[in-house]
Amino acid sequence: MSTSNAIPASGLKHLSDATRKRLQRKARIDVWFERTLFAFALAVLLLLGAIIASLMLSSWPAIQRYGIDFFTENRWAANVEVFGALPAIYGTLLTSFIAIVIAVPVSFGIAIFLTEQCPGFLRQPLSTLIELLAGIPSIIYGMWGMEVLAPLLRTWFPSVFPAGTGLATAGIILAVMIIPFITAVARDVINTVPAVMRESAYGLGCTTWEVTRRVILPSVKGGLVGGVVLGLGRALGETMAVTFVIGNNLFLNTTLTGQGTSIAALIANQFSESDGNQRSALLALGLILFLITFAVLAFARYLLRNSTGRHA
Amino acid sequence: MNISQTPLYRRRKRLNQLVMVLCQLATLIGFAFLFAILFTLVTKGLGAISPSTFVERTRMTGGGLGNAIWGTFVMTCAATVIGTVIGVAAGTWLAEYSGKGVMAKIIRFINDILLSAPSIIIGLFIYAVVVVPMGNFSGWAGVLALTVIIVPVVIRSTEDMLRLIPNSLREAAAALGAHRWWIIVRVCYSGARAGILTGILLGFARISGETAPLLFTSLNSNQWNFFDLGSEMANLPMTIYQNMTINAFIPDLVALAWGGALILTAAILILNIAARYFSRQRS
Radius of gyration of chain A from Cα atoms? Predict the structure, then answer.
């Protein structure tokens, strides 16, 4: 922060009164301009504090009442006031894990195709398309999952997906949703590799895959992992894409394809009709989700700190 | 023996071809999924859209989406205006005044966290600090939730764009006797205007499709609500959500939801293309 820009009166003696007043007024504007801007910047800091504080305050009754049971109870039964976060936490982590397992190879494949193989005339249109697709609202993915993907899975693999919906279906939808996002980040960080490095490797006789594997990927490893973790952060907190297809089963179901729920889906489904303990318990779930994503995003930030591409 | 006949060479070549085919396959799969979604959206959505969709309000028997489109438009615009003021101011401070201070590092980090925070958490937060004290769901609560989402986007793009302005421009203006605030307002902003506008447009596009933060803030309504932000406000994402879930037993409403989804996606894609156009003009 710069110090006050006010001009000392002694240096202005040779000026007329009017000029001096005008200069001092402008200097005062300068000071207040900076203070105002700083106040707005500070508001961002306070916002995060307020989010955490309000979630903690409003979830306190549930935390106090259920304590450690909140994490060990394996069902969420509002009618008997038994609230266990385990099914929701399990669903959140599992669906995000499935999404990452599917999305990472596909996204990296697309990114490598776009940067290393793609004919020049296709490169720009395809990259633009990927970025545009990253902007589709998540509710569209959820609707498509419910109306198209779930019935397809039920028809094609009736033994694996008896209902069509479930944790794995939600994972697939999340994967489709984060593929454009991870691809865009991966393409950007791969593009930061200087052409000279690529050319020297090719000059030594490397194949395209060897150049990618031995030269490009190692030099942007941090950025790639950071992009993946950012995608994971999206998947963890996603509500709308998941709610439609996860099945909304409130009992712990430790299978891959069974029906379950996630933290965001549970909150979206129950919050507006809840009160008292249930509402407080849902807010506690929200707090857990926020802390999980906070940790994941901070980790991504740490990994991305050295790469030039900055992303949402 | 020719080098291209050695086993090692052949193995390397085969591996290379295999991986490259896999990459092409990944590209095909990725785009196939995304096109399948767009295809479903267009085929199911087009049939449900007619001129009356844009002017009639939502009814249990179908009707249109006029009130929802209007509500989304009003809330998104209000949030964008508030978010632009806060975001540009905070972004300017980060780019022009913060230097290398610890405070700037913390604020930047927090902004990154807020940028990707789950939007449903933002909804819960606004519910706790606005809806509960006010006693009812309201358009204002929805506006504030959307504001919290757009502010980090604007801060980020403002800071990035201001940093692209070369220091020599600032120095030249200072040498002519301009005060610092004058330099920022007249020199820096005019140079970064297109970039900041792009960021605002992208933020506008993003919040117009957000459903989760509106679930417990503005809620939804099937009535016309033009400017009464003090009461529940209809909006497109929530209408789509409700039509696909609690009203899913009425086929007309499901069809209407697909129509709404197509309108929403088309609007967002157009906004994104417009943002791209603005940023291209800059360079």
Answer: 26
